[in-house]
């Protein structure tokens, strides 16, 4: 049963408070997805922004109304950690895809919450990431294969989604777990893979795909890669977050490093008066003007948006702060708007959703009509789980 806290209390503010350079967002409501026993890995939206899928550490994926937070149902079938989820495009609007450490990729009909497709990479496989190319009907996965003598093979696997036939196994380009795979937007058939070995490899996925003939370029980040994303007018820019919380910006076409923030957490921490930034959750970009923010958080659950000036190699003061909703590490952020004035979804007035290790989903409002910053918080949000356990934030990837 889903418990939703809708009661709000307005935090008092002095009428003569000094203006701030950041915007503090209001907490609309908090959903306790599993009563604190498990936590949220990822939040991803449907193409029409009506529904969001949420992966949890109990191997389930739950569906909610994006505008109201109403619980819709759940998809169960994975027997190990769900490492990534994504909705299909408008051609299959009700299709949700997922990959897991159980070695499977699955597709679900979100109207019935039933599994409708299944690919088994093998019982010895762990699948950390996947990406689908609608143009070529290729499904790519980043994996680790453990054979009977405990010898790992680090692979990028590709299937033809139409017949579920494996068409390629690329196992010579990485020597550690493949944590991310992404088909590069705006290109015909280019795939980027990223790994714990610190390398990003770009492949041509046309024809008979193999390591020798289809590896186009290799970018050496130098440390274990956690998450990547593309941005810019033609998606030529690439941001990269590592497992030791560094940030780098690349021109992937030119294989050129444009900015390297080895002390990114310290630079971000200098940009607000909250606790030290302990980790980075994600990056957020606006394609129309190449702007980029890195999203950092504290172990107490406060999150800030920090603008990146990669040409000047600077991280600026926080431009948005989400505070008062979470009591632990925030794992995922789903922005339903850009920063003020840039709407991504039809849910006007809503800034986005966050999910974390406290098992909560929090919805944040962006009230542009008020000159006073208010933090709204349910009177029961201070309640903590009755039991705690040690968690490793970087596992799974």
TrEMBL record:
<dbReference type="InterPro" id="IPR039328">
    <property type="entry name" value="WDR89"/>
</dbReference>
<dbReference type="Pfam" id="PF00400">
    <property type="entry name" value="WD40"/>
</dbReference>
<dbReference type="InterPro" id="IPR015943">
    <property type="entry name" value="WD40/YVTN_repeat-like_dom_sf"/>
</dbReference>
<feature type="region of interest" description="Disordered">
    <location>
        <begin position="1"/>
        <end position="20"/>
    </location>
</feature>
<protein>
    <recommendedName>
        <fullName>WD repeat-containing protein 89 homolog</fullName>
    </recommendedName>
</protein>
<keyword id="KW-0853">WD repeat</keyword>
<keyword id="KW-0677">Repeat</keyword>
<dbReference type="InterPro" id="IPR001680">
    <property type="entry name" value="WD40_rpt"/>
</dbReference>
<dbReference type="InterPro" id="IPR036322">
    <property type="entry name" value="WD40_repeat_dom_sf"/>
</dbReference>
<feature type="repeat" description="WD">
    <location>
        <begin position="75"/>
        <end position="118"/>
    </location>
</feature>
